[in-house]
Structure formats: C-alpha cells, structure tokens
Amino acid sequence: MYICNPFLDLPELKHLRGIVFDCDGVLFDSEEVNIRFYNQFRSLLDLPPMTREEEKFVHMHTVEESLRHILPPHLHSRIPEIRSRISYKDLVQYMRPAAGLFECLYFLCSRGIKRAVNTNRTNTMEMVLDFFSMSGFFSPVVTAAHVSWNKPHPESLHLILKHWRMKREEIAFIGDSRVDQGTAEAAGVNFWSFANPGLRSRMHIPDFLTLREFLGNNL
Fold this sequence. Notes:
about 220 residues, 9 helices, 2 domains, single chain, alpha/beta, 7-stranded parallel beta sheet, two-stranded antiparallel sheet, 9 strands, Rossmann fold
C-alpha cells in the first residue's frame, strides 16, 4: 500500500476513467446520523443505546442487516412498524460532507473522470445527495435496493462497470471498511482506502484535499 502523495506513481492512473465512492465514512461523516437513527429505533423499543461494537457494525451494513443485528430476535417482527415511525429526513441534517469533497468532485468533472456511488444504504442515498445538492455528480448510484447481493459481493461493482462500459483496470473504488475492501477484491478492481490505513489497498487516501492534489499532479 502507498500513501497518497504528489510523487507516487500508480500504473492504473494511466488507464483511470472512473472512480466509485462508498458513502458512509467516505463521501460523508455519517457516524452521528447513524447512531441517532439506530438509537432512536432502540429507544422506541425501550432498549438502551447501542454498544460501540454495534455502532461500528451499522456503519458498514444494510439497514435490515443492522436492525437484525442490534435488536433481540423476539423484536424483529416489529421492525416494519418502528421504521414507519422514524423519518430519515429529520436526521439527514446531521451528516457532514467530507472536507475537500466538492473541490475533488469538480476536478474529476473537469478531467472527464466518471463518478459513481456504491453503498449498502437502501432507500436514503438519493435523499442525502439531493439534500446536499450533489445528485449531478454521480451516475450511477448503486444501493442495496439495486442488487441481489450486498457488498462485499461484487455485483454492485459489476453493475457500475457495465453501466460505464469500462474494464476493471479502468476504475478505482474508494472505501473505508473491510466490506469495501472485500468488494473491490472480489470484483478485481483497484481499491483505494480512505482514512483507514489498516486496510489492504493500492493506496491510502487521508482526505480529499490530498487526493485532489495527487490527481492534479498525475492525471
């Protein structure tokens, strides 16, 4: 793994035509909103707040997987009822776009590099992008609702490659978790880790300002 810097030479940059972004922990700092959402769920069921391990789990998995993980089995039948009582629109304001993200996206647009989102969110991704006026930056936006198998299965990246009509070596996937790492490896796609140097990746990106500088010197 390399540290992202202006002097790094990655062979895949010569063929780079598209970048895929994970949502939570990459495009957005969404830890607070996730904790609020799932703890609100638990509160409505008279349960205490999540443990730190549970907080880490919900950051990486789908809503359905997360709820079944943090709720006792005897309460699973109440999931649809409680979900109908919680509005994500009231929580999206607690998300924070990553520092330097817009500058990096504008740069990629100027260089003709395609952008996509690949997330295990189910039905809130479009709402989030609309709230932050970011919808025009990404196509396609692949969520758990668009695939039969969630990340780390490679189906999502295969869909993006088909949509873009690109080869695996022409794209990179930026993620911050082992789920993202596993997705990229299963699809045979270059993986760049974001704010998590402990992952196995081609390159570690500390922040988008650094990535913008790096790509500006290498594309």
